[in-house]
């Protein structure tokens, strides 16, 4: 986008998040919102990540812990179901993996280059209770 | 008044459409945005927001982007509270004159500030807003340090924490003064609702925010915000550190209604030693040396005394 210089701004400059009117933003899902280029939703912080979380829906119980504790609005939940991860906005902090209560975890951190199918194929199996150490990916 | 949003469980809550956007520049694992999400998602009403200078402000309004899907004012360090109070006064005036374009939509007025903006720099302004009795909510994102400018101590920094202006070393154990009791100060204003919350107890937090929105008058919320950068822990541990803080009673969760009725809202099943909380953070690393070890016992005594005090107040109903 074309950026204005700092001295070209009017005093009291205003950024509009949306192009056009949105009547009830609190009940409009992101995919239905007319984001303008001023919204950081259109930007990406994907290059911050060293590791990325991957999601295995076979083990997910839709508890939504990852959704509520994600600091970057990157867990996509629709109709009370966890459907995936928004990799444009995920910074790779790993909170979702930490709070995931399933055994094995339905979210795990992998290196940024890891292929999703390969990761799902080598997903760890259910652990016995006395092994409290969680599986780590090299 | 518009109807309160019904949030029975986490699945209900997860149908909320966030009004705070990603690709803000907060650190990975920052608790600020978890708190902001839980506050904003607690209501479906229109929002009028301001943020005092601090991490939250500088990271969510980086030119040419904004991360807010609501009316949000970029304002100074000290006057986030007054900006929202001004908007609220304007709203009231237009309402009285019958000039509101959509009179059926009642917005919520919320100001955010860090502990620096709340405990130190904006203190006088907040006090003014509470004295004038604006119908607004002030949320303090309390990470106990000026994290945005490089980790200087604030009057919220607890004893023994190493900050860049109170560094720990051979001659000093770091911060020497105890944390200011902001909750008591705000309750003493006679505010209808004052509460301490933590992002890891989302249900307690959402219930308190909704109570705050329902209250008539100024509401103060002190939200513990574990800072991965300045408390020095790994970004994925934000929630577990918050759990340690609430379960060791370093951050007891309670509310004060009308300045006179104190309720404890969370009693941990297993109270864990304060030592565990301190040991999990790099800023208290030096307390685990022979020289400064005595401070850990002092910490425990202080936390126990505070918990005892809160329980006595709750029992006495004052």
UniProtKB/TrEMBL annotation, chain A:
Residues 119-138 are annotated as: Disordered. It comes from the Bacteria. Residues 51-80, 81-110 form the 4Fe-4S ferredoxin-type domain. Pfam families: Fer4_21. Its cofactor is [4Fe-4S] cluster. The keyword Membrane does not apply. GO terms for molecular function: 4 iron, 4 sulfur cluster binding; metal ion binding; oxidoreductase activity, acting on the aldehyde or oxo group of donors, iron-sulfur protein as acceptor. InterPro entries: 4Fe4S_Fe-S-bd (IPR017896), 4Fe4S_Fe_S_CS (IPR017900), PorD_KorD (IPR011898). The keyword Metal-binding applies. Keywords: 4Fe-4S, Iron, Iron-sulfur, Metal-binding, Pyruvate, Repeat. PANTHER family: PYRUVATE SYNTHASE SUBUNIT PORD. This is Pyruvate ferredoxin oxidoreductase. It comes from Sulfuricurvum kujiense. The gene is porD.
Automatic annotation (TrEMBL), chain B:
Residues 53-222 form the Thiamine pyrophosphate enzyme TPP-binding domain. The keyword Lipid biosynthesis does not apply. Keywords: Oxidoreductase, Pyruvate. It comes from the Bacteria. One of its GO terms (biological process) is small molecule metabolic process. CDD domains: TPP_PFOR_porB_like (cd03376). InterPro entries: PorB-like, THDP-binding, TPP_enzyme_TPP-bd. One of its GO terms (molecular function) is thiamine pyrophosphate binding. The lineage of its organism: Bacteria, Pseudomonadati, Campylobacterota, Epsilonproteobacteria, Campylobacterales. It comes from Sulfuricurvum kujiense. This is Pyruvate ferredoxin oxidoreductase.
């Amino acid at each position: 986008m074309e950026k204005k210089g700092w001295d070209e701004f009017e005093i009291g400059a205003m950024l509009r998040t949306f192009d056009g009117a949105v009547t009830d933003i609190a009940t409009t899902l992101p995919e239905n919102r007319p984001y303008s280029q001023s919204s950081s939703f259109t930007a990406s912080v994907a290059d911050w990540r060293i590791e990325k979380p991957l999601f295995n829906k076979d083990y997910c119980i839709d508890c939504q812990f990852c959704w509520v504790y994600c600091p970057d609005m990157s867990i996509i939940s629709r109709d009370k179901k966890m459907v995936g991860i928004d990799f444009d906005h995920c910074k790779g902090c790993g909170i979702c993996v930490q709070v995931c209560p399933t055994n094995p975890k339905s979210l795990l951190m992998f290196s940024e280059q890891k292929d999703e199918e390969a990761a799902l194929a080598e997903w760890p199996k259910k652990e016995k209770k006395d092994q409290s150490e969680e599986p780590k990916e090299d | 008044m518009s109807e309160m949003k019904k949030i029975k469980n986490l699945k209900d809550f997860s149908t909320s459409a966030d009004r705070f956007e990603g690709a803000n520049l907060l650190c990975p694992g920052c608790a600020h945005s978890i708190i902001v999400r839980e506050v904003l998602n607690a209501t479906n009403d229109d929002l009028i927001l301001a943020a005092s200078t601090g991490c939250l402000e500088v990271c969510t309004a980086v030119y040419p982007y904004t991360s807010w899907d609501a009316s949000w004012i970029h304002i100074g360090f000290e006057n986030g509270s007054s900006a929202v109070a001004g908007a609220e006064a304007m709203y009231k005036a237009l309402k009285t004159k019958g000039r509101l374009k959509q009179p059926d939509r009642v917005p919520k007025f919320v100001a955010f500030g860090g502990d620096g903006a709340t405990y130190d720099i904006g203190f006088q302004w907040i006090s003014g807003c509470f004295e004038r009795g604006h119908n607004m909510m002030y949320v303090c994102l309390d990470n106990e340090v000026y994290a945005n400018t490089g980790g200087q101590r604030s009057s919220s920094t607890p004893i023994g924490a190493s900050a860049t202006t109170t560094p720990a070393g051979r001659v000093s154990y770091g911060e020497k003064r105890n944390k200011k009791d902001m909750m008591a100060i705000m309750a003493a204003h006679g505010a209808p609702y004052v509460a301490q919350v933590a992002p890891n107890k989302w249900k307690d937090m959402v219930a308190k925010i909704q109570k705050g929105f329902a209250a008539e008058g100024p509401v103060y919320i002190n939200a513990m915000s574990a800072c991965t950068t300045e408390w020095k822990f790994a970004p994925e541990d934000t929630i577990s550190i918050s759990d340690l803080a609430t379960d060791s009673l370093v951050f007891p969760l309670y509310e004060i209604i009308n300045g006179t009725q104190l309720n404890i809202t969370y009693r941990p099943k297993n109270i864990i030693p304060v030592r565990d909380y301190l040991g999990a953070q790099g800023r208290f690393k030096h307390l685990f040396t022979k020289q400064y070890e005595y401070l850990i016992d002092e910490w425990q005594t202080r936390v126990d005394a505070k918990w005892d005090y809160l329980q006595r107040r709750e029992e006495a109903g004052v």
